[in-house]
Structures are given as structure tokens and as C-alpha cells.
Design goal:
Layout lengths: L8 H6 L8 H9 L2 E5 L4 E3 L7 E7 L2 E6 L5 E7 L4 E2 L14 E4 L3 E7 H10 L2 H26 L2 H15 L2 E3 L2 E4 L3 H8 L3 H13 L3 E4 L2 E4 L2 H6 L3
Antiparallel strand pairs: 1-8, 2-7, 3-6, 3-8, 4-5, 4-7, 9-10, 10-12, 11-12
Length: about 230
């Protein structure tokens, strides 16, 4: 419900979107949102649909994807608590979502409709600056991915995906970092074949760099994988 004050302090502190705003202003901005919950594998935004809602992920895990004209599903950046999506909603001209967004786990989001978020940006200009910084971070992620595709080996690309996910959306546990990703997802994100991803994961499991579980990976040593990028 709007104005329910459900956003936690931890999300306020972690979200770049709210950086630099005083507590009273953050409270006003968050109170203008609606909280929604989505079960895993829910599609929240669809590529090509009107960008009418702006989202802040507060709990769970999501990711961007794009479906080509041939029906192939391409995976892009994973999103964790504090991340934004639906950014084209803030533009003055009506636009459409460039990519789709789906949940990977049961998730909660804060949602602002287009008139509300644009009104808030007019009142708090820092929000637009923060949104642009987030867009810049996303562009940097895609640049790194493109450079990896052009210049790195399959092994380096798979390691890069795992290290990046560990840093951005990994859950720290006793013994390492847990990632919610399948071999198929990893292959898609690193632009390698599922066979190559499976072979590399088995090799890294044999040398105790990681442990594979169904739909999850326990990364014991991100540092060891990082060395594989060199």
C-alpha cells in the first residue's frame, strides 16, 4: 500500500537511488511508493511495453533478459536489494522498456508510477542524478561484458560472471558466497555453451574452488577465481 513505510533502513542505506538525501526526504519518497511481492520466475517488466512504472528491489533477486526475434532468451545483469529497474519511466518523453525483468527468487519491490516518480524528481533533483549514476554503473557492466566477449577466453568469461555475481548479489555464508545460478544461466551470461560451463564448473569443484548444488553454487574462493581472469 502507498504510504505504508515498509522500506527498511538497510535498503535506504544500500540504494544508490536514495544517496545524499536527508532522512526526512527519503521517508517522503519511500512513502509515495507501493510495495509489491512477486514469487520466483515472475516477469515484472516486458521489453517493448510502455515504461509506466519505476522499481526499487528491496528483497530477493531479479535479472534483466531480452528475447530476440528468433525467440532466444539472452540474460543480462542480475539485480539485488537496492537496485533499480524500469529507469526509462523517469524520461520526460513516454518510452518503452528496453529489456524485460524477471525475479529469480521470491522478491519484494517498491513501485512508483510515472506521474509520481517524475513529480518526486522535480521536487528532489538529486534523485535524477542518482538514477543517472545507476544507469552509468549498468553501462559499465555491459562494457565489461562486451570486452570479455571480444578479448577473453571462455574460462575467463565464466570466471568473470561468477566473480561479478559474488560481489554484487552473492549471499555470504560460512565457507564462502552462495549464488543462485544454474549452469544454463551461467552459460548464457558468459556466452559459452552449456557443455563448456558444465565442464569448467566440474573442474573448479574438483579443485575445491566451489561446490555445486541444484540451482545454486557455493563459491569457496572468489579470490582464486579472480586469478583466473588474469
Amino acid at each position: 500500500m502507498p504510504g505504508s513505510g515498509i522500506a527498511s533502513v538497510s535498503v535506504e542505506l544500500r540504494s544508490q537511488f536514495l544517496h545524499g538525501l536527508i532522512p526526512a526526504d527519503r521517508k517522503t519518497i519511500l512513502a509515495a511508493a507501493t510495495q509489491r511481492r512477486f514469487v520466483a520466475n515472475s516477469v515484472i517488466t516486458n521489453q517493448g511495453h510502455p515504461a509506466n512504472h519505476f522499481f526499487l528491489l528491496t528483497e530477493g533477486l531479479a535479472r534483466y533478459f531480452f528475447v530476440t526475434g528468433e525467440g532466444k532468451k539472452l540474460l543480462f545483469r542480475w539485480l539485488g536489494p537496492g537496485d533499480l529497474f524500469g529507469g526509462r519511466t523517469v524520461l520526460s518523453d513516454h518510452s518503452s522498456y528496453l529489456v524485460s525483468t524477471e525475479t529469480v527468487a521470491d522478491s519484494s519491490v517498491l513501485v512508483w508510477d510515472r506521474p509520481t516518480i517524475r513529480g518526486l524528481i522535480g521536487r528532489y533533483p538529486r534523485l535524477l542524478e542518482n538514477a543517472l549514476l545507476t544507469a552509468s554503473d549498468y553501462l559499465a557492466w555491459h562494457l565489461t561484458s562486451h570486452i570479455g566477449l571480444a578479448c577473453h577466453t571462455a574460462r575467463q568469461r565464466v570466471a568473470q560472471v561468477l566473480v561479478t555475481l559474488a560481489r554484487t548479489i552473492g549471499e555470504k555464508v560460512s565457507g564462502g558466497v552462495v549464488l543462485q545460478i544454474t549452469n544454463e544461466d551461467l552459460a548464457n551470461a558468459a556466452n559459452v555453451t552449456p557443455f563448456t560451463a558444465s565442464r569448467l564448473m566440474s573442474k573448479w569443484q574438483s579443485d575445491r574452488t566451489l561446490v555445486k548444488h541444484r540451482g545454486k553454487v557455493l563459491l569457496r574462493s572468489p579470490e582464486r577465481l579472480f586469478l583466473r581472469l588474469m
